Amino acid sequence: MKFKAFQLFLVVVFSTGTVCFAQDAKEDFNIILIHVDDLGWADIGVLGSDFYETPNIDRLAAEGILFTNSYAAAAICSPTRAALLTGKYPARTGITDWIRAKFQGGSEMALPDEYEENLGKEWKTPKNQGFLPLEEMTLAERLRQYGYTNLHIGKWHLGEEGHFPEDQGFHINIGGNDLGQPPSYFDPYLPEKPVQHYEFKNLPPRKKGEFLMDREGDEVVAFIQSQEKNKFFIHWAPYAVHTPIMGKAEIIAKYQQKKKGIQGNPVYAALVESLDQNVGKVMMELDRLGLRNNTLVIFTSDNGGLIGNPTQPITDNSPLRSQKGYPYEGGIRVPTIVRWPGKIKAGQKSDTPIISMDWIPTIMEYLGDKTVKEAVDGVSLIKVFDNSDQNITRDLFWHFPHFRGTDIVPYAIARSGDFKLIHYFDGSKAELFDLKSDPRESLNMIDSDPETAGLLLKKLEKWLIETKARIPIKAG
After folding, report:
1. Before 165, cis peptide (omega within 30)?
2. What is the C-alpha to C-alpha distance for residues 173 and 32, in angstroms, rounded to an integer?
3. The most confident of 10-14, 201-205, 340-344, by mean pLDDT
4. Angle at Cα 102 formed by Cα 98 and Cα 106, nearest 5°?
5. What are the counts of helices (DSSP H) followed by strands (DSSP E) for the chain?
6. 434 touches 58 (CB < 8 A)
7. What would the pLDDT profile of 149-172 be if each residue is shown by its tens digit?
8. 241-295 tens-digit pLDDT
9. For a designed S-S bond to 126, which of 283, 367, 390, 470 qualifies (C-beta 3.0 to 4.6 A apart)?
10. How far is Cα 335 from Cα 299, in angstroms, rounded to an integer?
């Protein structure tokens, strides 16, 4: 039976303009990029979870390539989402923190010289860019030039109206606006206390009590069915597994009876399983329609897992240190899987470091586009797909020039080879780790290896200048 969830298609396509067939592709294929919200590195079975059940995601890894050193561009959502869609470091776009939704007061355009006072007015930190500028060329806009029909479904969180997916190259937008999290995971998706502007875009309620992940999965399947004969790009950005942590009662009950390990939150486990079930549903539809071998599937996350209250944790990122928002591996390392039968050999595993900005140059190389390399910060991963032992030699960087809560101060990170330097702009003692011998980041080598620390600091300083990164300044 075909789903009847795709009634907006013609209206949206014609309201956003017709598809431009300006360029011929090297080869024709479909793309599904699944960009999960807050899924931690250790939240799937194939990366070590013995509590959450993720058979469909694990099957993707068995059928493709698993990256064990994959990084989000930031330890929080909006900067990573902008980086993935533009191929640029957050330092370049100015989106270095999460963007407030309209009901939270919204975010105005921040100019390069705009600062705000922080930490008892001792510091001035850069104001966050409040939306993805329209002049930034997104992956969707690049793909339109090759005749793709583009769907965004789920979380957007890159600005208010006028800066939604349909303004950034997507023909259809289901559920994406300025919301950073769902009001509720259950239809009609409303918060307990009504708040103005707190609703999804183009995702009206259809069945009371229906779980949001099931609805998203149905919408993706309906779109695939409508585009069976056409090239399509799906940017599926599940609202899961972000707060509010909710799950279907019958799945929660199963995990309540299950023996706990390092991880053990039954509600979060149910939310993860609902995500996995719908990934499986979409992959099954590709098989049914004979599109499996003609579809590149990318599965990744926007930042590390949220531990929350240590006494009643949401998840546990062990063996990685810390969580979402923090500069440690638990905040920035994410699960990433790529599958394309016939193109990418099954059962591969790669430990070469990759990052969110790599998807544009990878996809565009498959299309035969030779113009994108100079416009983005990422690199193509095709040579790693062809040989998982292939290493990409380069340095990676992160930039978070803001204070957060009581213990996150402005920082920047450089990873070069196996070494990782965390520099704190407020003068706090820097940290240097050897990730190969100390993946838990338990031994700070800043005093014992000043030569390596100095080398990485020079690289970081050069990168901050090259990207025109805005940094905190002393007040007064």
Report:
1. no
2. 15
3. 340-344
4. 55
5. 12, 17
6. no
7. 999 999 999 999 999 999 999 999
8. 999 999 999 999 999 999 999 999 999 999 999 999 999 999 999 999 999 999 9
9. 470
10. 8
Question: What tokens does 374 get?
Answer: 């100079």
Which amino acid appears at position 212 of this protein?
L
Q: Read off the tokens for 395.
A: 């340095």
For residue 74, the one-letter residue type is A
Q: Is 213 helix (H, G, I), strand (E, B) or coil?
A: helix
For the cut 60, the answer to whether the pLDDT of residue 19 exceeds it is no
> Could you give the 3-state DSSP secondary structure of residue 472?
coil
The pTM of the whole model exceeds 0.90:
yes
Specify the 3-state DSSP secondary structure of 454: helix
> In one letter, which amino acid is 457?
L
Dihedral sign (CA 245, 249, 251, 254):
positive
- CA distance to 66, 78, 91, 222, 275, per residue, from 60 (Å): 9, 26, 32, 21, 14
From the centroid of its chain, how far is CA 249?
A: 27
- Token pair belonging to 319: 């063996």
Q: What is the pLDDT of residues 333-342, one digit of tens each?
A: 999 999 999 9
Residues listed for the chain: 476
CA 184 distance to own-chain centroid: 21
